[in-house]
Prior knowledge:
Blueprint: E1 5-11, E2 15-22, E3 25-33, H1 36-40, H2 49-62, E4 72-76, E5 87-89, H3 92-100, H4 111-122, E6 126-129, H5 139-142, H6 157-170, E7 179-185, E8 189-195, E9 198-203, H7 220-227, H8 234-242, H9 246-251, H10 256-264, H11 268-291, E10 298-303, H12 309-319, E11 324-329, H13 333-345
Parallel strand pairs: 1-4, 4-6, 7-10, 10-11
Antiparallel strand pairs: 1-2, 2-3, 5-6, 7-8, 8-9
Amino acid sequence: MDKERILVINPGSTSTKVAVYDDMETVFVENVAHSEAELAAFKELFDQYEYRKKLVLEAMERHEIDKNTLTTVVSRGGLLPPVPSGAFEVNDDIVWQLKNKPQNEHPSNLGAAIAKSIADDLGLTAYIYDPVTVDEMDEIAKVAGLPEMRRKSLGHPLNMRAVAHKYARKKGRAYGDMNLIIAHLGGGITISLHKKGRMIDMISDEEGPFSPERTGGLPLFQVIDEATQEQETQKTMMKRVKRQGGLVAHLGTNDARKVEEMIANGDQHAALVYEAMANSISKHIASLAAVARGNVDAIILTGGVAHSKMLTEWIIERVSFIAEVEVIPGENEMEALVSGVLRVRRGQEKVRTFKKVV
């Protein structure tokens, strides 16, 4: 079987990650940084299209990649309307949706358009895989305490499904035959239940455990009191819960390594807060075990903060009675995009077609 040579594009807020893989073998990975001044020159997000595309092509030139040796292109998916998991061939409808009517503005919305343009010039197919808006939640999981509100499937599906496939391969089983609970431990923490290949429930970072930067779920009556104070606005409250909560609010840092240094130096308050985060993560994992009626093959801890042995050991102590716990640290977004597309190219998964939602 001939190797696939895959160009991978991952546009972010302050950089664009570019990589080329021969199957799962890394040829190069580069993180092209963007200064605030550079991005400030663009009024609208899609005004950055030519600028970012040029940077992708220049990265390939720096690493002496002949673009004619590529066999396909894949990008991180942007904020489409809710979609099922898996691969989508990038068509005009995807580009239109992300340009004109995305769920929200984010640089990842540029990726599909850049990937399609490069692929079209080479007569290739471009894909996106497991965008943030993957929604396979059971209807019962979406019901909230007010009929005008719905629980949403917003998390880290790209990395979650990638580590699920990795774990299944390790066990010599199929992902679609297993029940898995996966906790992505990053700046925000999300936890999902995968039942026979579908993410049927998701605890988002607005309702789950607190994290390095986010508050997670808060006591509701106190939230209402706080939000209705004269000095608070929707903007200031959102900043507090998304960027100034969790470890930042309690300990002044979002860096778990610094927290562990504080603990090593005898800071008992830091130890209390850090273990409280592990305790909260564990409670939410256990809640999804209840949804699975206890039928759980494994619990997987992933994301950047899963590198913390102290934190993961606290979690394992609390949830190992449910199932085996596997730690697969890191976000691995580029590898996740490659492994997903390889499954499609090898006929192990079917590619999906997106139709725009006006």
